Amino acid sequence: MTPRTTGRAEQAPPATTVHLPRGGPDASWWDRRFETDRVEYIDRPDAEARCRRVLRGLHRFQRLTGAYRVFSRLALAEVEGVPEPRVLELGAGYGSLARHLVDRHPTVRITVSDVNPAVVDAVRRGPIGHHPRVDCSVVDATAIDADDGAYDLAVLTTSLHHLAPDGVAALLREGTRAARTLLVVDGWRTPLLLGAVPLMFLTGGPAQAHDGILSVRKMYGAAALHALAERCGAPVRLRTRFALPGYLVASAARDPRPPRRAAG
Ligand SMILES: C[S@@+](CC[C@H](N)C(=O)[O-])C[C@H]1O[C@@H](n2cnc3c(N)ncnc32)[C@H](O)[C@@H]1O
């Protein structure tokens, strides 16, 4: 799959409510029908027990499929050469990516965060919450409470599809403000990923299969991400690519180039 890059928008428009098919502006009728706005248990405040079950199941699924190894390799590549990298993990869920990062990097410091305070509390009480190079915090990925450039890297894995399109635009704007680089990894938008649903059922039961099916239908295509980067209201440079076995990998940063002059 050829990598794609979005450069700086000529004049960044102000952020407004963005409506966009998840398959991108040119999504086919079939892709638009495949998309759903049904809500996953993870995003339902009235389904706390199921949310916990899904996160436990997802953790088993990620371990079995080697996902944490892929995510930590991609994240550490982004901070290569930085002596004491500061990483903000957004939408951390179970918190296992942080464990992989501190085990593989001797000096990395990580803020493990999630929008759900119960999720952050569980990580804080667990072993990774007591690690000397880890702290935990409630952070909304679409409105990051941190100074400009506070982090070398902000990373969001398997969570992009939980955000509505205007949330994705806000993430691109906020993630590239608070961190030098924003790394996003989620499933590649294709119905073929439904082939993983039996494994989701085995690792997390019906609740995990329910959320897994909705997730696959809510994944963003690379074209949608590029369209949202152009409309996010900040000069964001975005690069997307496919990674095995079925990930969309996006890295974004603020574009340092001066705006191009309009012709004429
Ligand atoms: C499917 S889990 C992913 C967990 C973990 N990152 C992984 O790769 O296995 C999605 C997580 O994103 C969190 N989330 C949803 N919306 C969010 C937002 N606006 N800001 C931060 N986290 C969010 C949810 O609470 C949930 O813990």
Automatic annotation (TrEMBL):
Q: CDD domains, per this entry?
A: AdoMet_MTases (cd02440)
Region Disordered, as annotated, extends over 1-24
Kind of enzyme, top EC level? transferase
Respond yes or no to whether keyword Iron-sulfur is given for this record.
Answer: no
Q: What is this protein called?
A: Class I SAM-dependent methyltransferase
DNA-binding in keyword set: no
One of its GO biological process terms is: methylation
Can you give the residue ranges of the Methyltransferase domain?
Answer: 87-178
Query: Which Gene3D superfamilies does UniProt cross-reference here?
Result: Vaccinia Virus protein VP39
Pfam families recorded for this chain?
Methyltransf_25 (PF13649)
Q: Which InterPro entries match?
A: Methyltransf_25, SAM-dependent_MTases_sf
Q: Which UniProt keywords apply?
A: Methyltransferase, Transferase
Q: Which GO terms describe its molecular function?
A: methyltransferase activity
Q: Which organism is it from?
A: Streptomyces millisiae
> What EC number(s) does the entry state?
2.1.-.-
